[in-house]
Write a structure and sequence with these properties.
Organism: Rhynchospora pubera
Largest sheet: none
Distance between the termini: 30 Å
Number of domains: 1
Number of helices: 9
Protein name: FAD binding protein
InterPro entries: DUF7795
Structural class: mainly alpha
Helix content: over 70%
Order of helices and strands: HHHHHHHHH
Length: 231
């Protein structure tokens, strides 16, 4: 094989990996959109459950007692007999809660499909790099870190100095790290949705909303670097 052909191998590998990386980040963006949509459904579930379980009117309060006495109509009496709730409102609340659950389940289904595709893309990038040169395997293993450690990987000032093979390895490693983070994020969301019910306390729901919004398994520094690395 001539020198010119040898020179083309890293470039071909890099272009293939960059193409895979672009597709990978496209799916990452779609997953981000689903997270935002899921947050809206979860907040709506919290709101509707609060309406459904709102406390009864305290008739022992002096002001409330006076209002009731001054307005003891048949409608007021039936309202009090119904424990201060409208049946049609309860039906609407239950319907909204059901719709929120369906929405969250649909989002999880779509997220799982995108996550599986992302995993395949990350594996493909890894194979492209290792098939081009088995020596690059050591570079990949050197850069892959546990996303839970919150360690910054691939300093920006190093990316431009990598040669073609090392740059391809860095992109492949980045995809693997991001995929692991997104997988943990999805698992958390799945557990939250599975925990939702009419008996879920409002304090639990508040915590779920915070966790969903914070995405504790996703390292913002890694994600910012990934977006800056887009070709």
């Amino acid at each position: 094989m001539g020198n010119k052909e040898l020179d083309k191998i890293p470039l071909t590998t890099e272009s293939r990996v960059l193409s895979i990386f672009t597709e990978f980040m496209s799916r990452t963006a779609k997953l981000d959109d689903l997270v935002d949509a899921g947050k809206r459904f979860l907040m709506r579930f919290d709101q509707e459950l609060g309406y459904f379980r709102r406390p009864q009117i305290n008739k022992d309060l002096i002001a409330v007692s006076e209002i009731i006495k001054c307005n003891m109509t048949e409608r007021m009496k039936s309202y009090l007999d119904a424990t201060c709730t409208h049946s049609h409102q309860n039906v609407q609340n239950l319907s909204q809660l059901h719709n929120c659950m369906l929405g969250l389940q649909d989002i999880l289904k779509k997220a799982k499909a995108l996550l599986d595709e992302s995993g395949c893309l990350a594996e493909n990038a890894y194979k492209v790099v290792t098939e081009a040169d088995q020596n690059v395997l050591g570079v990949i293993q050197e850069h892959v870190v546990d996303p839970l450690e919150n360690q910054t990987i691939f300093p920006e000032d190093q990316v431009d100095t990598f040669d073609a093979e090392e740059k391809s390895a860095s992109y492949a490693s980045m995809m693997m790290v991001i995929y692991n983070m997104l997988k943990l994020d999805y698992t958390m969301q799945e557990k939250i949705v599975q925990s939702l019910s009419l008996t879920t306390s409002l304090s639990e729901l508040e915590t779920y909303c915070q966790m969903w919004n914070l995405r504790p398994y996703v390292d913002d520094d890694v994600m910012r670097h990934a977006w800056k690395s887009m070709p």
